[in-house]
Amino acid sequence: MMDVPVALGRRATTPELPVDRPPTAPIGFHVLAKPSGPICNLDCSYCFFLEKEALYPGDRFRMSDAVVETYIRQVIESQLTPEITIAWQGGEPTLMGLDFFRRAVAFAETCARPGQQLHHTIQTNGTLLTDEWCAFLRAKQFLVGISIDGPLELHDVYRVDKQGRGTFTRVRAGLEKLTRAGVEWNVLCTVHAANQDVPLDVYRFFRDELGARFVQFIPIVERVDETSDELTDRSVDPAAWGSFLTSIFDEWLRRDVGEVFVQMFDAALASWYGAPPALCIFSETCGDAVALEHNGDLYSCDHFVEPAHLLGNITETHMLELMASPHQRAFGNAKRDSLPQQCRECSVLFACRGECPKNRVARTATGEVGLNHLCAGYLDFFTHIDGVMKLMADAIRGGGHAGEVMTAFASAGRNDPCPCGSGLKTKHCHG
User: Most CB contacts within 10 A, which of 208, 257, 367, 375?
Assistant: First the structure.
C-alpha cells in the first residue's frame, strides 16, 4: 500500500490541564481515536459508521499531526493509572499510512512520564497489512484486533468491499502476515443473521484454524433508520444470541478454560466475582468510553457519534473537562435511570445492567419502552452459566483459578450435565 501524506492542519495549542481534576471526571476512561473518521476501503453491509461521513460534508477525513499530538498528550495527562492505552479505530485506520503511526508512536514516547507504560492498540479489517506494517506493529508491541466473522462462507455474506466482493481471502492473508511477524492479535467477530445459528463452526474455526486465543463477539442490532425501532434482517435474533453464547460457553468449559479467552465470558466472571465490569455494556452506568473524530471532536460514545452527543473539541477544551461535563455525566447515568421495571426486577440484572443503551429498542411485556432487544438471549445465557460462574468465583476467592473448574468438570464426566445447565453437580446447582 502506498503511504498517503498526512494532511497538515492548523497546529493548535493544547488546552492546559486543569490544576484541580474535575470532581466528576472518571478515574479512568477510554478513548477510541478515528484518524480517518468513517472512511474505509470496505463496505460491510452492517457497518453503522460509514454513514457518519454526512456529519462532515466535504471533509478529507485525515487527522492532522496537531490533533494527534493533542489527543496523545491529553490521554496521558488525564489517566491516573500507570498503564495507558492509546487506541486507534475507524473506519479503517491503516488508510492513514504507516508513516502517520510512526510519528504518532514516536510522539507518545516523548510524552510518557516515568513509571508510565504505554499500550498501543489498533482495530483493522486486515486487508491492507503488509510485511512492513507488521514489522512496525511487532516492534512497537501493538495489540491488533482483526475483524473476521468466521470461515469464508459466513464472513463474506456481509463483509464485502466497494465492489460487493467478499474479503475473507484478503483478511486471512493479512492475519497470516501478523502471525509470521509475531504480532499479538485477537479476533473481533460480529454475530448476525448469517452466522448466529452455527456458533460452534465459528468458534472452532477461530480456535483450530486460525489459532486464536482471544476472541470478542459483538452482536449486530441494526435499526432500519435512526428514527425507527424496527430492525434490519441482518440483526441477530435474541434467542439465537443466547444460544450462540451458551453453545460456545459449553465447548469452552469442556476444553479451553485458561487457553482461549472469550471477552464475554471474562466479563461475566467479573460480575459473579464482584469485580468492576470488564465491558462498558455491563456497567451500571456508562460514559467512560468516548469516540474521538479525526478533527478533534469528542463524542459521548462510539455508538452515539451524532450532533446531540458532541461534547466539544479537544483542541479547544481539554478532554478531561469534556468527560466531566454535566452532559456526559447525564448521558452515562441515563443508562441506569432509564431501565424499565422488568429489568430492575430481573435476577441477572447484576450481570446484564440492561446492556448497551443503543440496543434498547424493544418493549417489556407491559408495554414499557427501553427493553434491550437482546434481553431474552442474555437471560438464557446468564441463567445457563450461573452455577459454573459461582464455582469459578469461589475458586478465585480461595486463591485458586478458574481453570480448576474445567479440571473438575473433566473428572466428573463430560457427558453428565447438571440440570441447571452448568455441566457440574455442585452446591450451586439449581436442578
Answer: 375
Which of 213, 124, 217 lies closest to 174, judged by CA? 124
Least confident of 136-145, 161-170, 232-241, 400-409: 400-409
CA–CA separation, 363 vs 342, rounded Å?
10
| CA–CA distances in Å: residue 134 to residues 63, 178, 189 | 22, 6, 21
Taken in order 241, 243, 248, 250, the sign of the CA dihedral is positive
Q: Which amino acid is at 74?
A: Q
Per-residue pLDDT reduced to its tens digit, 287-314: 999 999 999 999 999 999 999 999 999 9
* DSSP 3-state of 83: strand
Q: Residue 400 is placed in which grid cell?
A: 485458586
Which residues are the active-site residues? 302
Instruction: Specify whether the backbone of 93 is left (phi greater than 0), alpha (psi in -120 to 50) or beta.
Output: alpha
- Which has the closest alpha carbon to 189: 169, 208, 212, 209? 212
For 134-154, write each residue's pLDDT tens digit.
999 999 999 999 999 999 999
| DSSP β-bridge partners for residue 160 | 166
Q: If we measure between CA atoms, which residue out of 174, 151, 188 comes closest to residue 1?
A: 174
Rg (CA), the chain: 22
The predicted-structure confidence for 317-336, as pLDDT tens digits, reads as follows 999 999 999 999 999 999 99
| Cα 280 to Cα 421: distance, rounded to the nearest angstrom | 27
Contact residues for 372 (Cβ-Cβ < 8 A; gap 6+): 343, 352, 354, 355, 356, 359, 360, 362, 378
Using the structure block, give the residue that is written with the C-alpha cell 468449559.
Answer: 253
The amino acid sitting at 350 is F
Grid coordinates given for 170: 484478503
- CB atoms under 10 Å from CB of 103, counted, come to 14
